[in-house]
methylmalonyl-CoA epimerase (Plantimonas leprariae), 135 residues
Amino acid sequence: MIGRLNHVALAVPDLAAASAFYRDTMGGRVSEAQALPVHGVTVAFVDLPNTRVELMEPLGEGSPVAAFLAKNQAGGMHHICYEVPDIYAARAQLVASGMRILGDGEPKPGAHGNPVLFLHPKDGFGTLIELEEVR
Ligand SMILES: CC[C@@H](C(=O)O)C(=O)SCCNC(=O)CCNC(=O)[C@H](O)C(C)(C)COP(=O)(O)OP(=O)(O)OC[C@H]1O[C@@H](n2cnc3c(N)ncnc32)[C@H](O)[C@@H]1OP(=O)(O)O
Ligand SMILES: [Co+2]
C-alpha cells in the first residue's frame, strides 16, 4: 500500500530561522513559506535529491504543532509522510485493521494540493504518520 517517502516533517519554533539554517548553513534548496490555516501550520520545504523535509511552525489557535512544541521547545521530528496511490482505499484498509484516522477522518488537501490524512501516533509505534495520495 505505501510507496515513496514523500517527506519527513520537523516542528520548529521559528520557521524563518530554520529556513535560513537549511538554506545558508546546510546548503539546501528551501521553498517560500506557505501558510496553511486549515492545517494550523506555516510550512517551507527543503528539496533533497531523494525526498523533502517539511519545516513547520504553528499557525493560529489550536495548531496541532503548538502542543508538540510546548513539550519539545527546541523543535523536533514531528511526522513522516508516505505516498499512497489511492487514499480512500488506503483509509479503508487501515480502518479495517483498527487504525485510528485523526480529525474528522476525511482527507484534506495538503501543502502540495494532494489529499492527505493522519494516523494516530499510538497506532504507529509512537510515530505520527501522514499519508499523501500521489497518483
Ligand atoms: C501542511 C499540511 C500537511 C502536509 O501537506 O504535509 C501537514 O503536514 S500538516 C501537519 C500538522 N498536522 C497534524 O499534525 C495533524 C495530525 N495531528 C494531530 O491531530 C495531533 O497533533 C495529535 C497527533 C492527535 C496529537 O494531538 P495533541 O493535542 O498534541 O494530543 P496529545 O498531546 O494528547 O498527544 C497524544 C499522545 O500522542 C503523542 N504525540 C503527539 N504528537 C506526536 C507526534 N508528532 N509524534 C509522536 N507522538 C506524538 C503525545 O506525546 C501523547 O502521548 P502520551 O503523552 O504518551 O499520551
Ligand atoms: Co506533512
Residues 5-133 form a domain with the 2,3-Dihydroxybiphenyl 1,2-Dioxygenase; domain 1 fold (CATH 3.10.180.10). The helical segments are 15-25, 64-71, 87-96. Residues 21 and 27 are 8 Å apart (CA to CA). The mean pLDDT is 97.
